[in-house]
Amino acid sequence: MTDREINEAIAVHLGWLRPEHPDCIKHKIGWSMPEKWWMDPKTVLRFGHDIPNYCTDLNAIQEAEKATFGSSTQWLDFVCNFMAVLICAEMSEQDGMTCIVQASARDHAEAFLRTIGKWKEESK
Questions:
Q1: What is residue 106's three-state secondary structure?
Q2: CA distances from 7 to 11, 49, 51, 97 (A)
Q3: Sorting pLDDT into bands at 50, 70 and 90, what band is 72?
Q4: CA distance 2 to 55
Q5: N or C: which end of the chain has fewer CB within 10 A?
Q6: What is the pTM of this model?
Q7: Confidence band for 71, pLDDT divided at 50, 70 and 90
Q8: CA distances from 76 to 61, 62, 117 (A)
Q9: What is the pLDDT of residue 70?
Q10: Strand, coil or helix: what is 61?
């Protein structure tokens, strides 16, 4: 998945509405460039570039993790997916603790989407 696809998938999971969503369309009547407007969870119209960049911003992805998993048992699923992402991506070159500490926001974002069942493998 591209960074944009990842960011948009996480945003939708957190309550953002895509431009083609009926509730978003209803709020955009009379606005210019309606195909570019998203609606955030507070029903404020925003451009797509206003979606948090979960792939590069550790604060944003950690807020998404807290909002989604909270104190639920899904944390264990997330940790398992997170470790799987790190093992595939980086752990072969580093020791486990260094890998965890230096994990990127994108690593978190991939594990997040895998945990909620929204990760799409790239077709070859």
A1: helix
A2: 6, 10, 7, 27
A3: confident
A4: 9
A5: C
A6: 0.85
A7: confident
A8: 17, 15, 15
A9: 80
A10: helix
